[in-house]
Amino acid sequence: MSKFSGLGGRLYRGETSVNFIGRRRRWYALSGFFVLLSIGALAVQGLQLGIEFKGGSSFTVNTSNPSISLARDAVEEAGVTSDPIVQLVGTDKVRVQTQALDPALNNAVQDALAAKFSVSAADIDTQIIGPSWGKEITRKALYGLFGFLFVVMIYLTMALEPKMAFSAIVAVVHDVFITVGIYALVGFDVTPATIIGFLTILGYSLYDTVVVFDRVRDNTRAISAASTKTYSQAVNLAVNQTIVRSANTSIVAILPVAAILFVGAGLLGAGTLKDLSLALFIGLIVGTYSSIFIAPSVLAQLREKEPAMQALAKRVAARTSTPASGSSAVVSSVAVANGRGPRNQPKRKGRK
Fold it and tell me: Domain-by-domain residue ranges, the chain?
């Protein structure tokens, strides 16, 4: 820990530095790969929408012996042709979700499940969700997402600056797109809990990005007057100064979410937790990555196109340039700069 804290101190003071901004093409290429992977997953498989969004029937059976295979057999015997979604909920419940069914077929599925699990019909919780209600939920989810992005962009523009707000929104869209693509790749159902997870990771990603941008603003407050470093160098210093903090907070946030996903949903079979925990787990990792590698790189690239920043880069390059006419010229220029010239040594007598 002492070595890690010592490294953090050297990064903060600029004694040790990782060139994040100078290698932005690598980060863009890596992000591009995952974006293409997400596009492929969405095009081939698409999102598996839950019945809350597309409508359908849900049957939850309270039984001491939950079984996925028995539930599937019951649905097939009732005459449902589509493939149902069957999940274990805890240790005493099994949930069956089907497409929208007419009342007669709905009663047939309920009776078949009661017969298979040797329970009464009262032990089966039945819910019927129409497609119109599912469309309303979808519309509200999209309104919430776009409204969130709009309000955040206005706030960041007022609190920081417009190009920082734009860079942060680019990183957020990047996070959501990759998370949705991976969600489609693994085939999990998209439920209201998933939307809550998406909105949560948006807030976390922005929180981490704002911390980095606040340090950037401090480092670039009088950058044109100093002329000691370019804007990209100042941004890179800010990322190095905040990377230890970002890593610590991300690890602390990811560990409990990983416990919910792998232990709660995976080992204990809490199916209601996997929708939320998977979105959080992927989003936290991608959000941390984008706040360090993507958002600062986009900001630096935008600001370096400004005439003032281009002029600053030329002044910094001229200030740090050295003569290239040999080592003697370098030594001579250093001596003159220090106010000293070559010394005339007296001749020694008695030697020829």
Answer: 16-49+134-311, 56-129
